[in-house]
Amino acid sequence: MTVQEPVAGFAVAVVREDGRWRCSAMDNAVLTGLDAAITALRELRSPGAVFGMCNVDDEFFVLIRPVPGGVDLLLSDAAAALDYDIAADVLDLLRVDPPDEDDEEVWPEGNLAVLTDLGIPEGELLVIIEEVDLYPDEQLEMIAQRCGFGEDFAQMMEKLYR
Fold first, then answer.
1. Cβ(31)–Cβ(56) below 8 Å
2. Deepest in the core among 13, 23, 112, 155, taking most CB within 10 A?
3. What is the pTM of this model?
4. Could you tell me if 110 and 94 are in contact, meaning their C-beta atoms sit under 8 angstroms apart?
């Protein structure tokens, strides 16, 4: 049995029930592999929207949304699959080959419409991802604001960084 090295960053579970948003921290162990994150989100069992937001090592983010019969995924930078297991797991599940090591371009992989029903159309999410001057936590904060749970997300970040 191999021991996984811890990965810096954070993972937040986002739940919408009865018209209200709730953010909660997920165990950082979910940053080492996609299966752990999907399992943790499925355990939340809510009639409303449930998804996860993972900032991995301040390099990229992953959006994970369990849906009936599967999971919707969005990886902000496919090149991260060359260095991070969770990003490689996302590409594996999407059946997408990782980019060449020489490719320095940043591009997302997965479902850009993952949050459309929550207020962020594909084009807007792509604009946020392509804002390369922002760190992933700042991009996730923008997503939270546009979906309507920016204040809850900010409070969660405050708790995480104390």
1. yes
2. 13
3. 0.92
4. yes
Give the residues across from 32 on adjacent strands: none
Judge contact between 72 and 110, C-beta under 8 A: yes
CA distance 140 to 55: 8
Please report where in the chains the tokens 């996730």 appear, as a residue: 140
* Beta-strand relationship, 50-56 and 20-25: unpaired
Specify the residue for token string 């902000």.
76
Element (DSSP H or E) covering residue 14: strand 9-17
The conformational region for residue 58 under phi > 0 = left, psi -120 to 50 = alpha, else beta, is: left
